[in-house]
Every structure is written in structure tokens, then in C-alpha cells.
Amino acid sequence: MNRQLAPGYILITTLLMLTMGVSVVTYIITRSSSYVPLIDTIRKQEKARTLAFAGLQIAAAQLATPPKQKENQPAGPKLTSKLAEQKSAAEDPRHLASIILPTLNRWQQFKLKESVEGIDAILNVSISCEDGKINLNQIYDFEKKEFRGEKQKDGGWKKIFKDMCGRIEKQMGGKELFENVESYLKKRVYQLNDVTELLTVPGFIIFSDKIFYEPPSIDTNKGGNKEARPLYLTDIFTLYTQKYTIDPWVFSDSLAGLLELKRAESGDREQREKMVETVLKQFKKTANWKTDWKQLLQPLYQKELQSLPSGMESVLGTTFDPRVFSIVVHATVDSVTQRLYAIVERIQQDGEGAAQSQVQIRKVYWL
User: Fold this and answer.
1) Are strands 134-135 and 237-238 parallel, antiparallel or unpaired?
2) Which sign does the torsion angle of CA 162, 168, 169, 170 carry?
3) Which region, left, alpha or beta, applies to residue 332 given φ > 0 means left and ψ of -120 to 50 means alpha?
4) Four-residue CA torsion sign, 211, 213, 344, 46
5) Helices (H) and strands (E) in the chain, counts
6) Is 5 exposed, middle or buried (0-12, 13-18, 19+ CB in 10 A)?
7) Which of 33, 110, 176, 313 is least enclosed by beta carbons within 10 angstroms?
8) What are the sequence ranges of the domains in the chain?
9) What tens digit of pLDDT does each residue of 141-172 get?
10) Which of 330, 361, 362, 364 is nearest to 49 (CA)?
């Protein structure tokens, strides 16, 4: 017996097929509309990431910049003496000071154009010095479980560090930071591996979003932003130097803020360059800060030596010989920005000719 199909089934079947077709097309369009922008963003991220490494190389090249050679140098028998002069100039700390001090802790901006560099992008690079920070592994003896010089009459680093923690509490908040850090260090049987380990110390959560240094934003207006700026954990403390002293020539920006010295400001680069140029005329590789602070560093920090915490003078390095630097790079392609923070070491090498400087990357953080 043949069953007769109900009238209208063709219409219903057609509508079902159209519905399925629309669903498939809608799915494809939805997937492609999210996929294409995602791929474009990833492409820009990779470009910005590559550009960030280029910024790191720019900073390294600056730190390794050789001294300018004199023009019209005679040739022949005097070549050896000329190489000796070049070597002496390369080893002259005044040369390194002239490179790093004008832009220390400040942004250097490079605007790239596709017609010239092959890409439209903005590259911001900032150089700071680890020798201008507090080395936690050097100021604390993990075997004796005490701060360096804490049994001395002046209290040594224990007194200074306690004062620093009090200043952090005043500017950033937190409670009993010194007591918590001291207890934490006494429980450890080996040195710190990374400054960020301090985030596990009670109270230091105040630095959870202020870990890596952020220079003041670039402002075309001279004088810049006068608002109070935060302190950054890895801009106060370090583990990468071999000294328990701090080089006052290259104070980190956050440490300068703790000591209530003049900090880096947006739009102050021209003023800074003029001050450094004047100071370098009186530059000394080895200084006595009791007598030399006023003419060498007071113009830069706009504070007298006596304004520093009691005992601070005893831990200020007297010889200018910075070796380890931190570099912040922000690379922006369109609206996509990649950020990195690197620790590099400047090594002086002697060759057959003039002395050469080499910069080695020790650590890189992607932010």
C-alpha cells in the first residue's frame, strides 16, 4: 500500500535546508571575523617583539660606544702611541659618564618610518644602572645572619636599611617592612635568586603592580608632570653587582625618590644635559663626598649631602666604575606594544688595538 506524502513537505524541506545553510554561513563568517583580527594582532605583536629586541641592541650599542677619534691623525711610526691614546680614552670613566648620565633613568624615543626604517613604529628605550641600587645579597650575611656592619657603633647597613623601609612605608604604604624582611632573611640559608622573591614577604604586596621601573612619560612640555611618582621594587634593590656600596653618580630613580633627591621628570632632558655637561668639567673618578658632593652631585640632585639619612655617607661608593645596567624597552607597532626589562653587563676588553667594550645580556623579563 503506497503512502501519499502530505502536501507542503517540499516547502518545509526547503526551509530546513536554507536554515542549515544560513547557520553554516553564519558560523564561517563569525569565525573569520574573529580570526582575521586575531591574526593581524599576532602579526603586530611579533613585529613589536622583534623591535623590542632592536631597542635592547640600541641601548647596548650606546653603552659600548667608543670615544671619538681625533681627525687628521698622523700615520706611520706614531700609530702605536695613537692606539694607546685611544685605549686610554676608552678606559677613561669620564667617557662612560658622558654617555649614560644625560639620559639616565629617562626615555629615549625613536620614531621609525616605513620609508626609512621599513616600519612605522615608536621605540622607547631607557637605561638605568644597577650600581645605583641596594644589593640585598651584599648588605646581608646569610651565614652570620646579620646585616653588614650592624654591630658597629653606627649600626651599619641594618640602621640604613631600617630607615629605607620606613621611607617606603611613608611613600607606598605597608607596615613593619623591616621586621618582616629581617625575619625572612634570617630564615634563608642561601642568597636571593631574584629581587621579586621579596613579594612573598608580608607587606611587600604593595609592590605587586610596581615591580619593574617605568620612566616618566614623555611630555613635550618642559618641566613635565610634577605629580608624585611611585617607587619600583627592582629599581630600589638589585642582586647583580659585586658591591655593598652604592654609586651616587648613578642613583636609580626610585632610590633617589626614597632619599628625597631630584628624580627624573618628563621634558627635563635638555636641562639635564646642560647640568651634566657642566658637572663633567669637574669630574673625578675617585671622589671624597664630604668635599666633592657640593660641586659634583648637588647640581644634579639639588640636595646637600647632609640631607641624606644618617650613616648613608659610609655606603656611598667613591669610585665611578659602573658595570651592570638595566634597560627598559617599549616597542609599539600601531596600537600593539611589547615591553621588556633586561639586565646587561658592560665588560671592558683589551685587544691588539684600542680597548673595546662589550655588553652581555644577563637576564630578560617580558612584561
Assistant:
1) parallel
2) positive
3) beta
4) positive
5) 11, 9
6) exposed
7) 33
8) 52-65+80-366
9) 999 998 988 888 888 899 999 999 999 999 98
10) 330
